[in-house]
Amino acid sequence: MGKSMYDFGKQVKEKARQQKQIDKASKRIMAKQQKANIKTRTPNAGSDIAEPGLVEEIVKSIA
Fold first, then answer.
1. What does the alpha-carbon distance between residue 26 and residue 38 come to, in Å, rounded to a whole number?
2. In angstroms, rounded to a whole number, what is the distance separating the alpha carbons of residues 22 and 9?
3. Are residues 43 and 51 in contact, defined by beta-carbon separation less than 8 angstroms?
4. First-residue to last-residue Cα distance in the chain
5. Is 3 strand, coil or helix?
6. Angle at the Cα of 32 (from 30 to 36), degrees rounded to 5?
7. Which end of the chain is more exposed for a tag (fewer CB within 10 A), N or C?
8. What is the rounded distance in angstroms from the CA atom of residue 22 to the CA atom of residue 14?
9. SS3 readout for 6-62
10. pLDDT tens series, the chain, 63 aa
């Protein structure tokens, strides 16, 4: 006798479950990398975060 269609449905469902786990794991890893990149990145000149040395120069020029 051959395999029933019931077993085939189980295989498809199991492969889909495994693929979903792999996708979730890769998304988690990407999110961790992006979070690490944000923490280690230096602020750009055009960013809203002012550098202390630059602030002192502006204060001196105004005064």
1. 18
2. 20
3. yes
4. 94
5. coil
6. 115
7. N
8. 12
9. HHHHHHHHHHHHHHHHHHHHHHHHHHHHHHHHHHHCCCCCCCCCCCHHHHHHHHHHH
10. 566 667 888 999 999 999 999 999 999 999 999 998 887 876 665 555 555 566 666 666 665
pLDDT value at position 21? 97
DSSP assignment letter at 63: -
Amino acid occupying residue 44: N
Look at the chain and count its residues.
63
Cβ–Cβ < 8 Å for 2, 8: no
